[in-house]
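Example record used in the benchmark description.
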Amino acid sequence: MKEAIKRIALIAVENPEIHELEINPVIVQVEGKGAYAVDALVTLVKE
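Model output (structure tokens):
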């Protein structure tokens, strides 16, 4: 889960046009098998 949070944060930092990033739920598998998002919503900044 820690690695997933780091990667999501990096996406937000590298893409300043992202206003909101909602991921719910995140399914965490057994250690070493990763995690995946079931649903996600990205809201961009209006110009």
